[in-house]
Amino acid sequence: MIRALCLAAVLVLASAAPAAAHTVTAGADLRIAQTIAGAELTVVIKGTTRVPGPLRMAVIAYQPVSGLPVALEIRSAEDGRTVTGATQATANPRYVQLQVERTGPHELKLSAGDESSVIPFRVLVEREPAGELLIYGGLLVAAVLLVGGLLTGATARPGRAMALAAGAAAGMTVAAMVIVFEPRLPAPTPDGALPAPPASTARGRPYAQARVTTVPARPEAGKEFTLRMDLTDGSTGRPVDDLTAHHEALAHVVVTSEDGRYFRHLHPLRTRPGRLEVRLSADRPGRYLAHAELEREESGGQLLTAGFTVGASADTSEKTGASRETGASATPRLRPAAPVTGRPATVELHTPTGVRPWLGMSGHLLIRDQDGDFFGHVHEMGAPGSRVRFTFSFPEPGRYLAWIQYATADRIVTVPFTVNVTASETP
Ligand SMILES: [Cu+2]
Question: Does this model's pTM top 0.90?
Answer without folding.
Answer: no
